[in-house]
Amino acid sequence: MIRQEAVAELHTFIEALQAPLIHSFMAKGVLPQHHPLNYFTFGFNEKAEVLAGIKEADLLIVIGFDFVEKLPKEWNEKKLPILHLNATPAEMDEYYPVQVELVGNIKQTIRTLNQLDIPSKSWVPFGNLQEKSKQSYQIEEIPKDLNSLPLSIENILHIIEKLSSENTIVISDVGAHKVSVARTFQPKHPNRLIISNGLASMGIAIPGSIGAKLACPDAIVICLTGDGGALMNFSEIETAKRLGLSFIIIVLNDSILKLEQETMNKMFGKSYGVTFQNPDFVQLATSFGVNGRRVNHGN
């Protein structure tokens, strides 16, 4: 939907319909953070607050969704009827029971729908779901005194939100931090937050940031990666240096593959082979001829 440049048409459609909208990871930014119909993101393995709202619906209008992000059985347990709107035909199963499908260019399809007399379906999920999601995902007003914030991934994201321009591009690698990015970070525009989802290729953030900077040379690009993902492709800094590209790399340095640790602990009650020794990332950056700084709690 974003790639077919249908965001403006979507705004008109949902505001006419007056129904809540939730995003997959790759659709973040299609609605501004404070839009009254923005019910934020789904697709987490746990604590996806917005799924309660899906269960209350009588029809799901699914626009441009790719099954590789999250299989329907994970978000449509009640097997609610589907209106499928996409550039490709639906892949139907018992958890994706399509009643109607509109296949074609998404921008043109929504534009055509907007020309019809669509009845408003104003509806708010039970239990103040929007506010619960904000609290659960730590989506909140950003404190004015940024120096007082403890150094958590959520607070790093709040600082990026506060200080970045509307044109800033954020690239998230794969790891435990990716879930926090998908939950907490609210981009100002669509296609400004790139999250490796679906097959979730670890190590994408640094080379992805090179691609983003080549595509949008005037935009600030921020690469957000764990230490495991960074070490997979840190050599690409030589490519960025050679091409004269300037972007910010934030390495979350904790010497552990935290997402793998959490998965192993959940499945087996213990983890193995998830900790490792890191180089001095500041010296490593310097060896490539780029500036590096270390930030600790209390800095």
Shape: globular
* CATH architectural name of the largest domain: 3-Layer(aba) Sandwich
- How many β-strand stretches? 9
Q: In total, how many domains does the architecture comprise?
A: 2
Secondary structure category = alpha/beta
Q: Strand order within the widest sheet?
A: 7-6-8-9
Separation, N- and C-terminal Cα atoms? 41 Å
- Quick one: CATH class of the largest domain? Alpha Beta
Write the layout of secondary structure elements.
Layout: H1 7-17, E1 21-23, E2 38-41, H2 51-56, E3 60-63, E4 82-86, E5 98-103, H3 106-114, H4 129-136, H5 153-163, E6 169-172, H6 176-184, E7 193-195, H7 205-215, E8 221-226, H8 227-233, H9 236-243, E9 248-252, H10 258-268, H11 281-287
Parallel strand pairs: 1-2, 3-4, 4-5, 6-7, 6-8, 8-9
Write a compact overview of the structure shown:
This protein has 299 residues and is an alpha/beta fold. It is built from 11 helices and 9 strands.
Features:
alpha/beta; Rossmann fold; 2 domains; four-stranded parallel sheet; 9 strands; 33% helix
Write structural notes for this entry.
The chain has eleven helices and nine strands. Strand 6, helix 6 and strand 7 form a beta-alpha-beta unit. It is globular, with a radius of gyration of 20 Å. It has helices at residues 7-17, 51-56, 106-114, 129-136, 153-163, 176-184, 205-215, 227-233, 236-243, 258-268, 281-287; strands at residues 21-23, 38-41, 60-63, 82-86, 98-103, 169-172, 193-195, 221-226, 248-252. Helix 5 (153-163) crosses helix 6 (176-184). It folds into two domains: 7-134, 3-Layer(aba) Sandwich (Rossmann fold), CATH 3.40.50.1220; 140-287, Thiamin diphosphate (ThDP)-binding fold, Pyr/PP domains (Rossmann fold, 3-Layer(aba) Sandwich), CATH 3.40.50.970. The strands form three sheets. A four-stranded parallel beta sheet has the order 7-6-8-9, with helices on both faces. A three-stranded parallel beta sheet has the order 3-4-5, with no helix packed on it. It has 299 residues and is α/β, with parallel strands linked by helices.
